[in-house]
Specification:
Layout: H1 8-16, E1 54-58, H2 80-90, E2 94-98, H3 108-117, E3 121-125, H4 133-142, E4 144-150, H5 162-169, E5 175-179, H6 182-187, H7 189-194, E6 199-201, H8 216-226, E7 230-234, H9 249-261, E8 266-268, H10 283-293, H11 297-312
Parallel strand pairs: 1-2, 2-3, 3-4, 4-5, 5-6, 6-7, 7-8
Helix pairs in contact: 1-3
Length: 315
């Protein structure tokens, strides 16, 4: 990781911004609608989040941190203060900050966000294979619990890095987080079967809608899930849906199949601030999808509360 020249204290001030917006809970949970940057609408979801519900996939952006020259996505600022508004709107209280491709392997922005959020947050880093062990340990103390490989957007990672880095992080108890298209996952199936660490697939693993749950992509994912160390994020429904909101029905069939197959290894994520989308989705609608995908309240609590405790070590 490259240290940011502004220093830790200034970085926290930048990211925390209007911390007076407050952490979620208490008086902040008044019934009024809440407008959130990078999110359509302002109404609260119909679904009531259980206590300690976690959003397990979102990003933080701040122009004070330099972008990687190779990055293809350059969203506007989406700060800790902005994200706290989303927490108030949805009723979630725990969160996982995922290092976006925009910053390459410079995790300064993500780590500053973790410090600003405090003990209710965890992080996912992007690293190079030659990262010093001392730096990995420092990030572990800061709340990082995994490393991400984004092989969809241009970035700092390649498929060749997955196995050596998974072995480097094994003793830390971390996992590898994979963002790949479904056919790429099939091509790399043998690699995933031999990794020593748990695997977490982003955004429903991008199962092609043309084949759905009857094709080779879902078959490989089902096999990996059945092996007991693979997880899937119920997130980013808009990335593959052709029918769109409010129901995202075409993607919903895949999500429900995951819930039926392995509810104990699913987590939910908002993907806020939705960096791939020109027209921003309504986060309340995205959260309410869980009521359709997982109709049983106990299953939703498992996905929102119990599974994140296991995967990210929330106390």
């Amino acid at each position: 990781m490259v240290s940011h020249p502004l220093g830790r204290r200034v970085a926290l001030q930048i990211l925390a911004g209007a911390t007076a917006a407050g952490a979620p809970g208490g008086a902040a949970m008044a019934a009024e609608a809440i407008a959130v940057p990078w999110s359509a609408g302002s109404e609260r979801p119909t679904l009531i989040a259980p206590p300690d519900a976690a959003d397990c996939h979102h990003h933080i952006y701040d122009h004070h941190f330099p972008a990687d020259p190779a990055a293809g996505l350059h969203p506007g600022d989406a700060t800790v203060a902005d994200y706290r508004l989303l927490q108030r709107r949805l009723g979630t209280t725990r969160n996982v900050v995922v290092q976006p491709s925009t910053y390459g392997t410079d995790n300064s922005c993500m780590l500053a966000a973790l410090a600003a959020f405090g003990k209710t947050a965890r992080g996912i880093a992007v690293v190079h294979p030659d990262i010093p062990l001392a730096e990995l340990r420092r990030m572990n103390e800061a709340g990082v619990r995994g490393i991400r490989f984004n092989l969809v957007q241009t970035g700092a990672t390649t498929i060749d890095m997955v196995e050596p880095l998974s072995r480097r992080i094994h003793d830390l108890g971390w996992h590898v987080q994979i963002h790949m298209r479904g056919p790429q996952i099939v091509e790399a199936a043998a690699l995933f079967r031999r990794l020593p660490t748990p695997i977490v697939f982003d955004h429903l693993a991008h199962v092609p809608l043309s084949e759905g749950t009857n094709g080779p992509v879902f078959a490989v994912l089902r096999d990996l899930l059945d092996r007991g160390s693979t997880w899937v994020k119920l997130s980013g429904a808009y990335q593959d849906s052709r029918v769109g909101p409010p129901g995202y029905a075409d993607v919903g069939a895949i999500a429900r199949a995951y819930v039926q197959a392995a509810p104990e290894r699913l987590v939910w994520g908002s993907d806020w601030p939705h960096p791939t989308e020109t027209v921003k989705p309504d986060d309340a609608i995205l959260f309410d999808l869980l009521a359709d995908w997982a109709p049983e309240a106990a299953t939703r609590t498992r996905i929102l509360v119990e599974n994140p405790k296991i995967l990210y070590g929330f106390s």
